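S1.2 Input.
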Amino acid sequence: MSAPRVHHEQLPNGLTVLLRESRRAPVAAVQIWAGVGSADERPGEEGLAHFHEHMLFKGTERRGVGEVAGEVEGVGGRINAWTSYDLTVYHATAPSEAALPALDVLVDALRNSVFDPAEIEREIEVVLEEIRRSEDSPHQVCGQALFEQVFRKHAYRAPILGTRESVASFDRARVRAFFERWYTPENLMVVAVGDFDPAELAGAVRDAFADARPGQARRKRTREPAAEAPRGTLLRRPFERACLELGWPVTGLAHADTPLLDLLGFVLGEGESSRLVRRVKERAALVDRIEAFAYTPLDPGIFGVAADLDPERAEEAIAAMLVETERLRREGVADEELEKARTNFLANEHFERESVGEQARKLGSFHALAGDWRREEAYLEAVRRATPEDLRRVARDYLEPDRVAVAAVVPEGSAPSLDAVRLLEAARGAPARDRGRAAPRGAPGPALRSYQLPNGVELHVERRPEVPVVALRG
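S1.3 Output.
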């Protein structure tokens, strides 16, 4: 079945329009994408991209505070926004007859927000509370720590929310200057999917931005140098449980290997039948939760493994996780395992496209991050055609032991002897490569360890401390 036709247009001032008609339900999703995220902030601006997500709903020249959201919600719709490292997106979903009013509300917010100083002060407190909540979340603290290890130079290392110090310093002049620099038509994209007349909606977009003038903002980001050795950090916080993340630098969305990495994530740690769940959680009982993922934004991202566990099991868990990634690199994926992962992956992709909002998000993401909305079909086709050897290749290319980063957050007072050095020792001692000494490679669980000695001899050891006897066989 061919994909629905997309109306793609670029206005003379540079604004992009992507419209896909879908008559399956009397609903329309209308979104405006701004090509600016936290990775585009200058020193002292940390958190400004996200702050605009708040301020653009705080009143315009035509609508007072509360009326921006209230007008869409009043017709049974929903309106919201989100910010990432690369993008800020304002989106509304409404009954089809309200598609044009929803567009008008979003355009008004983006073009005519007043940035009232009193509202800025109020929103500073709201965002500061958001930062405090993030600092109370073990997963967010651990995820931020991992990004700081993987990205030592690139702007992805900084938190999207900003810091308390930077957010507290915001004022109208700084907020307005950031807005005027980035919210210009060549840096904006209108995306809509749903039950509407594309020609009518496209005409409304042209009228709404007819007098908008291009700006001069250009992205300038520091490239991340290649990692040459494992990196790690351990943080102690007043939490009840520990969490652990491993990460490797990988690709951005536009790269041809990205769909293979996404599929590899399903094989390794997505679902109850994945390798990490079966072997590290169920069989070895080292973690309470474990998953794998590929985060592939505009610039090179992260392939990660995340787990919740007892802090005393952290070193064993790291070794067991790396045993599994090394098995992928050495042995590859069985045909049956690949087909199961592919089926689940494609089913998940179909489920995500059930709503017009998610369809619009996919359309906008591929155009903004991969350079062309048409790459979505090529991405899915790469998943459909992926072979076991393809997955083994990307595992070998990207999941190199020397490039792994480790981040752990443990409760204060727990495992007092555990530190970042021991985490890195666990990573180096796992099956990585021959480092001049035997290193474990391949194991169905933590009790069995397999080694390859420098001369090629294989050694398999199963430790049973409850039995005071040693048995050897050659």
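S1.4 Remarks. Residues 432-446 have pLDDT under 50 and may be disordered.
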